[in-house]
């Protein structure tokens, strides 16, 4: 099989169309993180972003977007931000990973959310993990009727808190596709405050992530749209979510809320409102992302499996990279797999966050400007997403956010 590689910046229309066709022919590749729009968006702000194209039968049949550094270390496009990774291909296509790496000039290719069915990468998988999803169907009535039918155990309490929020603050309304960029800035500010408050790395202190989210917010294409959803009480925004959607899948990515309203459980309200509205707007799957969290157990209808690992060919750089990265991943996965370790780790991170606040950290100051923020890139830890508890009071330890 012939393999070519191309810059993502300025990807030709025929290649983009062939990529879309490959997505359309296989439901497992319908996730927006696998769309060329996400890959080309990352390429605008990250050097070394490219796509390997597999050719067969007279045309392109497979696409692997990746990032490459000067030493030939490769990683899935947007590693640390993307909740879904794959070599997107037409049915029946296969490949030889070492040939693929050689054609791209890579000694190693790292992934952490590889979708099921990527059998050629199977020998290099070091672990698989649950990735909960919600299968959506539009309700026959309004939101309360949908909620009582879909989540009867949560409906009474959630609707009661919404009525209390309306009484205390103002009429509750939800905008599924909010186009006001000021609300996106509000979400970033809330999320920055949450990261710092809980001792996590502040993704929105990184200018390239701010720029990427701004860019994706403006994308309005058939296979990829940046969707900002906002829950209001009166004229006040109380919770928001931003994530990409394809024609059939909405990915839960960045969710946050105004801490002043935490007693109303705005995190859970946001998830439920988003699920109901997404179903009405043609989305069939809400992808909650990898991670074993209580709120996901309540919301999910089934689970997908995603894998992490390192495809590699014999090379000193590949060996060094795996020796450096595997222990870090192993420690993280051990903590996440054991609640008796995860809770102390969360408490430690919260203590760090409190110390930062006491030391004068700019809690709630929001995303930094390009001039204010450090220029270093994210090292590849998971990012984005939603809060783990139904009231949105805690950080996600094992996935975006």
List keywords for this structure.
401 residues; ten-stranded mixed sheet; four-stranded antiparallel sheet; 37% helix; elongated; disordered C terminus
Compact overview of the structure:
By secondary structure, the chain is an alpha+beta fold. It has helices at residues 13-25, 36-45, 97-104, 143-150, 152-168, 181-197, 207-218, 266-280, 294-299, 316-337, 339-358, and strands at 2-7, 49-56, 59-68, 73-76, 88-89, 108-115, 125-135, 172-175, 225-233, 236-245, 249-251, 254-257, 285-287, 302-312.
Description:
Helices cover 37% and strands 23% of the residues. By secondary structure, the protein is an alpha+beta fold. It is elongated, with a radius of gyration of 21 Å. Helix 2 packs antiparallel against helix 7, helix 4 (143-150) runs antiparallel to helix 5 (152-168) and helix 10 (316-337) packs across helix 11 (339-358). The chain has helices at 13-25, 36-45, 97-104, 143-150, 152-168, 181-197, 207-218, 266-280, 294-299, 316-337, 339-358, and strands at 2-7, 49-56, 59-68, 73-76, 88-89, 108-115, 125-135, 172-175, 225-233, 236-245, 249-251, 254-257, 285-287, 302-312.
